[in-house]
Amino acid sequence: MSSFDERENAFETEFAHREESKVRVRERAVASLAQWAARRLGRSAAAAKVLTQEVLEADVASPTVEPTIDRIVADLAPVGIPKQEVWQAMHRFLAEAEVAERSGRPWRELVRGKFTLPELENGLEALQNGALVQIDRADYERLFGLNDVALGRLRNFARSHQCIVSFADTIVLFRKHIAPVEEGLDPQQ
Fold first, then answer.
1. What is the DSSP secondary-structure string of 54-107?
2. Which domains does the chain have, with CATH numbers?
3. Which of 6, 160, 168, 183 has an alpha carbon 20 to 30 Å from 119's alpha carbon atom?
4. What pTM was computed for the model?
């Protein structure tokens, strides 16, 4: 094989990889948007899963994301969420999906839902490095309280489960962060 053929194959492979990555990013962002919409509508986890599947199937048929946005806006019309807010959410989810794709973080490892403290502890213990657990702000307040002491309690809880905690407007995210063990170092020292 000539060097020209090798370069041509390399470019084709790189192009295919970039296109597959774009598809995964869009799929992840659209799924996150559908789950966001389901939460805004107050749907159950099962209904959110159905909505997400329907939106993903419809999105595959369109070369642009505009019909998907229109679908979500129509679904959210009863609760009065404007198209601009849906677009803002979509842009945020696209940015998050791009970061997740570049970091190689698995998509299937985002766990959402209402938790009791033991369920949250079990969920965090079972996570792989880089995976996420999302809880609603109301659940956070119910589990940890709503004062300055609660924030410290939450951070200690996250640290004890090898997680980093971050806050958004209506959610709290726990990201599993297991520090790599350096060779030659004994953790017992």
1. HHHHHHHT-SSSHHHHHHHHHHHGGGT--HHHHHHHHHHHHHHHHHHHHHT--G
2. 1-104 (1.10.790), 108-181 (3.30.110)
3. 168
4. 0.55
